[in-house]
Specification:
Distance between the termini: 27 Å
Number of helices: 3
Strand content: 15-25%
Structural class: alpha+beta
Length: 179
C-alpha cells in the first residue's frame, strides 16, 4: 500500500522537481522497481506472482464522474508468468480473484462477484464500482455514473447501464445482508 501517489504528493525523491504529481509517481515506480529487482535475485522468484492494482485510476484534478477514474491498470508479474501478454478488456477489480485462479486451473466458484476475464465464458465485459452514495457502470457502449441520493445519472445517462448497475447494487446488498 502506498499513499505517496496521493495528495499532498510529498515524497523523499526529486527526479521531476517541476511536477510534484509526476514526481510522486516516479518515486512509487522507482521503489517498486527496486523491490522487483531484489525479488528477482531470490529463489522464490521462479514461482512468484506479484499482483499490483490501484483503488482508482489516475484522476488528479478530475471529478469522480470522469471516465479516467475507472481506468485502473492491473499488473501481474513474476517468475510464475510464463510469457508477456497485454489484455485490453473491461473488467472489475472483483474479477482479479477468478482470473488468477482460472489461470491456475483452480475453482473460483465461491467468488460469486468475480469472473475469469481470460476464459471462454467471459462474454460480456463490464466494470462496476461503488462509491459513497453512487456507482459507475461501464461496458463497451460507454460509462454511466449514478447518484443514489438524487436517484439519477450524473454522467452519461443511459437507461440500460443504469438498470444493470442498479441490479448489481441490489444483489450486492442482498448478499451482504445474508452474511
Amino acid at each position: 500500500l502506498t499513499l505517496s501517489s496521493h495528495e499532498d504528493w510529498k515524497v523523499p525523491y526529486n527526479r521531476i522537481p517541476d511536477d510534484e504529481i509526476a514526481n510522486s509517481f516516479a518515486y512509487v515506480d522507482d521503489a517498486f522497481g527496486r523491490l522487483v529487482d531484489r525479488l528477482r535475485q531470490t529463489p522464490a522468484w521462479d514461482n512468484l506472482l506479484i499482483v499490483v492494482t490501484g483503488d482508482h485510476g489516475c484522476n488528479a484534478g478530475e471529478p469522480l464522474s470522469h471516465d479516467k477514474y475507472s481506468h485502473i491498470p492491473l499488473l501481474m508479474l513474476g517468475g510464475a508468468v510464463k510469457a508477456p501478454r497485454r489484455i485490453d478488456t473491461i473488467m472489475s477489480q472483483s474479477d482479479i480473484a477468478s482470473t488468477i485462479l482460472g489461470q491456475l486451473d483452480m475453482s473460483h466458484d465461491e467468488f460469486i462477484f468475480s469472473r475469469d476475464v481470460m476464459s471462454e465464458s467471459y462474454k460480456y465485459p463490464f466494470s462496476y464500482h461503488t462509491f459513497i452514495n453512487g456507482f459507475m457502470f461501464r461496458d463497451a457502449t460507454g460509462f454511466t455514473v449514478v447518484d443514489n441520493v438524487t436517484d439519477s445519472a450524473i454522467s452519461n445517462p443511459d437507461k440500460d447501464r443504469e438498470h444493470k448497475g442498479r441490479i448489481i447494487l441490489q444483489y450486492l446488498y442482498e448478499d451482504l445482508a445474508k452474511r
